Records
---
Amino acid sequence: MLDIRWIRENADALVLALRKRGQEEAAARSTVEEAIAADEARRTHLTKLQEAQEQRNAASKEIGKALAAGDKEKAERLKAEVAELKGFIQDGEAQERALDNRLRDLLARIPNIPLDDVPVGADENDNVEIRRVGEARQPNWAKEHFEIGEALGLMDFERAAKLSGARFTVLTGTLARLERALGQFMLDLHTTEHGYTEVQPPLLVRDEALFGTGQLPKFDEDLFRTTDGRWMIPTAEVPLTNLVREEILDGEKLPLRYTALTPCFRSEAGSAGRDTRGMLRQHQFYKVELVSITEAEGALAEHERMTACAEEVLKRLGLPFRTIVLCTGDMGFGAQKTYDIEVWLPGQKTYREISSCSVCGDFQARRMNARYRAAGEKQARFVHTLNGSGVAVGRALIAVMENYQNEDGSISIPEILQPYMGGLKKIEARG
């Protein structure tokens, strides 16, 4: 959420930022003007309310003086005035809440402002590659992951559909163990070498948590809701970032770095017809999430660090990848800047996203009221938040299957994962 004071003072800058994100000039200006008008109405009302409270207090004091002077007529007139002011104030406080909610709702739907170095563009075609690591092999016999998994008898989409419908997968045997091994390897790497603290968070969260990280109110169609009104997490970013909500942290203890391996649940609204084969785009998947809570001055350096931590996963696995910076039109709602890491899939003959690392500034912190107090300062400041996939486990499984596939249909296991597989070096078809 953006600071309304900043919006008032930088209206044209916000219009420009919204245009960079793809809004038309008229729509962008309307968004900004509506927010400023709502704030002006709220401030005007608060002024009237404060004046009424001052008048009531003054009149109340005069009542005592009038009674002491024996002027009952004046006292009664003042009492009537106080009663009228009291009614106005009561009605005014209800109106104040309505105006607060109106402004909050408008601000909640305005996306974050891209940093100056983010490339301006309309969509994924305008993203900019900044580095490429590893050789993207493409043997002419390469198959896609679902062909490999089904031929091995270890990946079953038909049974999954009987259980749950489309966009679910049943993994069995050594392929299920390989997915588990990937998640454990990532957690071990991030906690023992990268300085993240492992967390096992709730998988169900309240409205406030999803509002804090920006999924609500704008993206409720992408989520699954339970019968008791809670939500299934679309990513562990939600509970991990909200660990600091409504708190004032000691600035000397920042940055805080959290990681978690959790199931994630997404409705994939708007994805009809996309990636329907295989397990690239699922309603349920595992992901290792990285979240950092920093002071303002360290956020950009932390963004580079977090991205490097995610890249290291792929380096250790020996998977070719490229890192791109997203353009303004392809960037997420709450992000100031985002790096996507795309892994090479020889079966698809293309790179596909496996991690997305974003710096959000104080955008989420304002929604969560998460602050810190720097040494020697009395005034608390909003923290800066970052999140990234470190990495998506299901997509890492796909990448290992396709990059380590052999012509005979077997899958060689990356050396780094062999200890997690009980020393197994190859996955072969069940006899």
---
Amino acid sequence: MREEILRLTGEHVVLVLIAMSFAAAIGIPLGITLVRWEGGRRWVLGFASVMQTVPSLALFGFLIPLPFVGGIGKRTAIVALVLYALLPILRNTLTGILGVDAAVRESAVAMGMTRWQVLCDVELPLASRTILAGIRVATVTTVGTATIAAAIGAGGLGVLIFRGLASVNAQQILAGAAPAAVLALLADGALGWIERRVSPY
């Protein structure tokens, strides 16, 4: 049992890391784009909000029949987890950059900085704590949601939980639920530490 728990924990961590890498790679640049693309904010944030309100099993069901992204297994699970993680990353990136003091931005422009330099050297560093807070929320949520991905053959700690539910075995349910809870706490603590280190003030 111990070997299986370790193996499934590894699968769970890999699933979360892949999903969060894609979510951050999509969400942060898109959030930066929305800072200046005011017309698209409502639509993009609305789409991300809708995705997060759809029940996970229902979303898996919608994705499975789709070509390229669907099917049974990890690919569909990763797509669903990315869609769930987008909203907090998008919203916090947008909020963080818009929250930068206008006077600081104007001073950077007056010093001769280009728009790109203002973004990279002023806005993103000042918004980093807010952006990391969004990634932190998304990661903790993804750790929990990834347990349900076992229902479509994606592996992870949800395998033990579903097996325990099917056999009415509380020990197996706890064998899957307890490591998932520990992973969520570790992710929250680690990202909180990084958040404080990046922006201590």
